[in-house]
Amino acid sequence: MVIAVNAIFFQEEKREGYGHYAWEIVSRLITTHPEHEFILLFDKPFSKYFIIAPNVSALLVKPAARHVPGFLYWYNVAAAKVVKRIGAAVWLQPYGFCSLLSNIPQILFIHDLAYKHFPKDNTKWNQWYYELFTPKFLKKATRIITVSQFSQEDILTHFPTLQKPIQIIPGAARKGFVPLSWEEKEAVKKKFTDEQEYFLFTGGVSPRKNLLTLLKAFSLFKKWHKSNMKLVIAGRLAWQYETFLEKLKTYKYRHDVVLTGYLPDADLQALVAGAYAMVYTSNWEGFGLPIVEAMQSGVPVITSNTSSMPEVGGKAASYVNPTDPEDIAAQMQLLYKSETLRSTRIQAGFEQAAKYSWDSSASQCYAEIMAAIHV
Q1: Model confidence over 271-329: pLDDT tens digits?
Q2: Contact 173, 262 (CB under 8 A)
Q3: Sheet holding 166-168, edge to edge
């Protein structure tokens, strides 16, 4: 059986949320099912990094799908023709879009409906595209997958007439996110924060990540505690980041804020494991991989009490109102003042992270593939 995979977010060096999720699952499908042929469809030149077994190959399908006209053409014309030509039995669509014109069974992954809740975070054209086409994608897809119970319920709330099941297949922490020894943590702090302890946020800099509120919370924490604690923000400048950078120029504690930009996996994993705490107070997440990555690394987590984050963090995280900087700062202070609380959170985090497994998620995805081809 030939399985086509939309691989436009598969990047060797700068893979992020959706790309990590899709590759962790697809790579396991490739290695555990050598009886099938997997063909990865890229819209830009690709790396041989992804050719991990004899049963996987890749094709470049132009033009690039990086704007609304490109989306429409790539999914409905260029890629649809290729998928038909290679005789695919099923087409995996991991990024919320699918082809409306292809007759090949498609498995659609919808991570969240953030566009419904934060429309101003999108460009006018992207918002138009989401609003017009998401209901069509849901209707067209043979099978639908999402990443959390929260997202499943949100989809059904906004599309109550949807006449097909939505399978929940969560993410997990990758293998490289592991605890560090004391000596290793000291080396991380020496490299990134002048040997100081630090709170950490990981993810792209964009409005949804709520970083301006995090700066306000960090200001309050620094006001309450005249410590040398740093705030590290590890992630690329994603979109609509200009306001954040402008505020940072005049921020009172700007010299205690470290922007790393995008980091290779090894550096990111070390930075996470070396943190005093993860402060992941995003406005909205379909899942929130950094939560379980920190927990698996032995780092306590402060996260938002909104969307999927309480579901992902379970009883192991500290929860805050992401719109209230004083609430965030208070939880930072509690961890700072109580080593007992911090230790309790760390142990609970190990147990919570262990509930998620990429192997299990890949197995569930394979069941959806088989269901799609037998519809």
Answers
A1: 999 999 999 999 999 999 999 999 999 999 999 999 999 999 999 999 999 999 999 99
A2: no
A3: 56-60, 37-42, 2-6, 90-93, 106-109, 143-146, 166-168
What does the block give as tokens for 336?
A: 């700072």
* SS3 (DSSP) at 324: coil
The yes-or-no verdict on residue 14 having pLDDT over 70 is no
Q: How far apart are CA 64 and CA 79, in angstroms?
A: 11
DSSP conformation class of 98: -
Q: Using one digit for the tens of pLDDT, what is the confidence trace for 67-119?
A: 899 999 999 999 999 999 999 999 999 999 999 999 999 999 999 999 999 99
H-type helices in 168-283, by residue range?
Answer: 182-192, 211-224, 242-249, 265-273
Which 3 state secondary structure label does DSSP give 173?
Answer: coil
Q: Give the domains, in start order, of the chain with CATH numbers.
A: 2-172+357-373 (3.40.50.2000), 182-353 (3.40.50.2000)
Structure tokens at 34: 């050598």
pTM above 0.85, yes or no: yes
Q: Are 204 and 313 in contact (CB under 8 A)?
A: no
pLDDT of residue 204: 86
Q: How far apart are CA 322 and CA 71, in angstroms?
A: 33
Q: Is the peptide bond before 160 cis (omega within 30 degrees of 0)?
A: no
Q: Which of 54, 58, 51 is nearest to 7 (CA)?
A: 58
Q: How many CB atoms lie within 10 A of CB 287?
A: 25
Provide CB contacts within 8 A for 168, sequence distance 6+. Answer: 145, 146, 147, 148, 149, 151, 152
76 secondary structure, DSSP code: I
204 exposure class (CB count in 10 Å sphere: 0-12, 13-18, 19+): middle
Question: Over the chain, what is the mean pLDDT?
Answer: 94
Residue 372 neighbours by CB distance under 10 Å: 19
